[in-house]
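Task: sequence design from structure.
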């Protein structure tokens, strides 16, 4: 798989002359190619945000019956064609490419010692160095790498745009609270995980997260204009049922 990625990188390198820009262009190509799959997930997550008030209403109505809450919530998801785990798909789709890029930077001879930004990213197959010191510090070693920090910020932006949580915190469902906590955890986890990994891998993942956030923002902006709020659609029948009772 990494060999296929290298073929495309060689093509980009032939007219950019930079392996760093080749990684970024490869990321753009992958994000565009995977957009149809990601778009489905983005739309489903947008619907999750729309029906959040209804989920909160279900939780308030059956707060003494957790099983009833789960049953009614799943019925609502099914009726509105929403997948509650759709937010996991974009990350899962990216994992094979992330592993492929890691193997590429590890094994490709042409990338060894390849610079990108002199004085900062001097070798794409090793961590970037913003500044260094003499006395080693646990985990950090003798140098500070800024790319993983920028990567963490890019992941934060992605989580912000992908969030299905309503602006009104009182309408947050238990699932949305858990998703928010998991999103923060994953951002911190990836920042530390990537800290001592090759700068080329950081550039790839940071570019991917930034493009994902941009795609999500554009998708949300488009859907906000054309999608009828789920609350208006479901509230009316719900009120009729209460009147009959």
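Answer:
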């Amino acid at each position: 798989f990494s060999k296929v990625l290298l073929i495309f990188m060689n093509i980009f390198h032939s007219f950019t002359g930079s392996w760093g820009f080749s990684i970024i262009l490869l990321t753009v190509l992958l994000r565009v190619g995977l957009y149809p799959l990601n778009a489905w997930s983005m739309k489903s997550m947008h619907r999750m945000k729309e029906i959040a008030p209804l989920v909160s209403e279900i939780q308030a109505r059956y707060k003494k019956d957790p099983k009833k809450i789960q049953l009614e919530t799943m019925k609502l998801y099914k009726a509105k064609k929403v997948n509650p785990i759709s937010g996991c798909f974009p990350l899962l789709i990216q994992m094979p490419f992330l592993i492929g890029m890691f193997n590429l930077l590890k094994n490709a001879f042409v990338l060894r010692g390849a610079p990108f930004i002199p004085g900062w990213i001097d070798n794409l197959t090793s961590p970037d160095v913003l500044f260094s010191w003499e006395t080693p510090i646990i985990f950090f070693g003798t140098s500070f790498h800024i790319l993983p920090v920028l990567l963490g910020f890019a992941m934060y932006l992605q989580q912000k745009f992908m969030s299905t949580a309503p602006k009104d915190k009182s309408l947050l469902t238990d699932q949305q609270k858990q998703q928010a906590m998991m999103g923060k955890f994953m951002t911190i986890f990836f920042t530390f995980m990537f800290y001592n990994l090759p700068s080329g891998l950081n550039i790839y993942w940071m570019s991917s997260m930034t493009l994902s956030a941009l795609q999500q923002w554009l998708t949300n902006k488009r859907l906000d204009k054309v999608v009828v709020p789920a609350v208006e659609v479901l509230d009316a029948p719900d009120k009729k049922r209460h009147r009959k009772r």
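Residues 2 and 104 are 5 Å apart (CA to CA).
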